[in-house]
Amino acid sequence: MFETAANANPSWVADAWTSMQQEMSSGGILGALQNSKNNNGSTSSFLNMSSSLANSMALIQQNSFSSAATNTAQIASNRMQQDQADALQKALNPLSSTSLNQAGPKLDPMIFLGNGATLDTTNNILTLSDGTQIDSTTGVKIQPTTDIMQLGNGSWIDLANNIMTLTNGTQINSITGQIIAKSV
Questions:
Q1: Rounded to the nearest 10 degrees, what angle do helices 29-38 and 11-24 cross at?
Q2: How many CB atoms lie within 10 A of CB 176?
Q3: In the chain, at which residue ranges do the beta strands (DSSP E only) sit?
Q4: What pLDDT score was predicted for residue 1?
Q5: What are the phi and psi torsion angles at 24 (to 5°)?
Q6: What are the sequence ranges of the domains in the chain?
């Protein structure tokens, strides 16, 4: 117990030793009482002799209060840090849970629709009953790459259907030159 108290405030041991030395000298309380009988037993003599003892006691009390305040502040700081760490962990727990990493319900690889169309959920391709294929994520018509000729400006020609699609989306019959669909 004394070791803990000494470690909490290293100057406490020195203060206690100083107080014990002062008690044994003529300035301590015993010395003040002893000397007061030699000075006619006056109150002023007793008070003068015991002033150093009062100062020593005040210093011990001040160091004790300082140590307690420092210790209390340190405990409060540690408690706040622990509370912050707990709050941070509580906020991060839902983010690291495995429930976020799980995929949604699995779809069948091929879904057959009532109008004769099919939806390939693996490749995201909707095939209509007339054979037209549409990318189900973007809605863009899919052309077989062997039937497409890319032009340098971003336009392309559908060789199977003889339709040239310009970069603005306008479609032109490549044989007659007539506009089939104009982009808005």
A1: 20
A2: 9
A3: 110-112, 118-120, 125-127, 133-135, 141-142, 148-150, 156-158, 163-165, 171-173, 179-181
A4: 42
A5: -80, -20
A6: 2-100, 107-142, 143-184
Q: What are 141's strand-pairing partners?
A: 134
Give strand pairing partners of 134: 126, 141
AA letter at 132? T
Residue 105 has, within 13 A of its CA and on its CB side, a CA count of 2
Q: How many helices (H) and strands (E) does the chain have?
A: 5, 10
Taking the whole predicted model, whether its pTM rises above 0.70 is answered as: no
The C-alpha atoms of residue 170 and residue 162 are separated, in whole angstroms, by 14
pLDDT, tens digit only, all 184 positions of the chain: 444 444 555 676 777 777 666 655 555 556 655 555 555 556 666 666 667 667 777 788 887 778 888 888 889 889 999 999 998 888 888 777 655 556 667 888 889 988 889 999 988 989 998 888 888 888 878 877 778 888 888 888 888 888 888 888 899 998 998 998 876 6
Residues 6+ away with beta carbon under 8 Å from 53 = 19, 22, 23, 27, 28, 29, 32
Cα torsion through 53, 54, 60, 65, rounded to 10: 170
Distance CA 9, CA 31 (A): 29
